[in-house]
Amino acid sequence: MKIVIPGGTGQVGAILDRALTAAGHDVVILTRRPRREREVGWDGETPGAWGDVIDGSDVVVNLAGRSVSCRYTEANLRAMMDSRVRSARVVGDAIEAARRPPGLWLQMSTATVYAHRFDAANDEANGIVGGAEPDVPGYWGFSAEIAQAWEAVQEEARTPKTRKVALRTAMVMSPDRGGVFDVLQRLVRLGLGGPVAGGAQYVSWIHERDFVRAVEFLVARKDLAGPVNLAAPVPLPQREFMRALRTARGVPVGLPATKWMAELGAFALRSDTELLLKSRRVVPGRLLESGFTFAYEAWPAAAADLVRRARAEREGSN
């Protein structure tokens, strides 16, 4: 198959690129700064010659959008919104204009669309969309607004010959340097991998292998369209999540952090506390109902695998 990945130079794009290329597919990356073979330039906003790459392709996986790993200032939140909406809209326009449109458009979305909650898990059928929760910072609602706007652009696109799926994705865990798992490992090594603000907030995640397998599953299952949660079936409280990671790393103790300490740490890392404090209790209802089986359902086994592979990669590079 020919698979086009707009915005495919980040961590998730690299995961998909290497897995799908290894499986024998023809993968093309759309990027603002093409540097190697199979990369094509685009600006993520306006039509161009890059549309010829989409014409005749089998699958488009749009990952484009400004990284959420930043301070949630008004300017950065607006940039997140604009980059996602504009890129999704121009991808939809290219699919609409194609003489041979792709059979499937997978549009990246986020599990952050769901509300901050502890009482029950959010699936696609019964999940509560965020934005109106009491006792949380007001700007948290903007993250849910971004996700809804992202998905609305795809839903509204006139692509009758192209099936559309919105990937409501939890944190994708891989041993790659610079990814979210790498950051969490570093905190554990420094003795800082304890509970944050009590650690009751839920963490939703998905192992990179299951992320790729879920994408392949959605390609094959032509009866599935609309929002699909890409998250492991067992989200867990942050205190338990970090305890399992410490066990995998062989680090017995992790210092706890209060809310204000988390705010200082996020400021130093030029990130935002929403990434640490929001309770993301998300489960993959539609995947499970459709017969998808996870290689890594529970976090302890996933953490052990990722730690082992991260160590092997570092030893191999020395």
Query: If you compute it from the alpha carbons, what radius of gyration comes out, rounded to the nearest whole angstrom?
Result: 19 Å
The description of the largest β-sheet is: 7 strands, parallel
Q: Which stretches are poorly predicted, pLDDT < 50 over at least 5 residues? A: none
Mean pLDDT: 92
* Strand residues, percent: 5-15%
* Strand order across the largest sheet: 3-2-1-4-5-6-10
Q: What is the 3D shape?
A: globular
Helicity range: 40-55%
Distance between the terminal alpha carbons, to the nearest Å? 36 Å
Structural class: alpha/beta
Count of DSSP helices? 11
Task: Tally the beta strands.
Answer: 11
Protein architecture, described:
With 318 residues, this protein is an alpha/beta fold. The protein has 11 helices and 11 strands. The strands form 3 sheets. It has a 7-stranded parallel β-sheet with strand order 3-2-1-4-5-6-10, with helices on both faces. α3 links the parallel β4 (59-62) and β5. α5 (180-189) crosses α7 (238-249) and α7 (238-249) crosses α11. It is globular and about 60 Å long. The two termini are 36 Å apart. The model has no long low-confidence stretch (mean pLDDT 92).
